[in-house]
Amino acid sequence: MNANYFIDTNVFIYSFDLNNQDKRGKAKSIIKNALSDGRGYISIQVIQEFFNVATKKFKSPMPVLAAKEYLEKVFMQLNVVYPSAGFISTGLDLAATTRYSFYDSLIISAALKAGCSVLYSEDMQHGQKIHNLTIENPFKKT
Fold it and tell me: Which residues pair with 6 in a beta bridge?
């Protein structure tokens, strides 16, 4: 992969899913590639959403110290997009024009801000193009 790509929260959540080995394997592969190729992007929102689920909703919730270790070893090794007023304004524009929720629109806004050509997400329309960004569901069965 030669271009930047954005990884949505669900990819990180599936990397811990012991009940779905196919999705878990694909998620772990995306994360591993992002850690090695330097082209993977996330946003603060992805980090917040992941830890909300991991520490409260996992079948065996992630202990806070394990969460901190994951933050340092995984999330902080990726490229992180930080919010700004313009970033939020773009998210609002996207919410108005795409019919995605405000939070999904913020994910798209972050991917656009990072210059990503692909957004890996299970939560949005596979194949949809928004500006120069293509949404790709990495778990879609072909």
Answer: 41, 119
CATH 3.40.50.1010 fits 5-136, yes or no: yes
Give, in degrees to the nearest 5, the angle at Cα 44 between 25 and 129. 65
Phi, psi of 104 (to 5 degrees): -65, -35
Indicate the burial class of 33 (C-beta count within 10 angstroms; 0-12, 13-18, 19 or more): middle
Residue 80, φ and ψ in degrees, nearest 5: -110, 130
Judged against a pLDDT cut of 60, whether residue 1 lies above it is answered with no
pTM of the full predicted structure? Answer: 0.95
| Cα separation, 135 vs 84, whole angstroms | 23
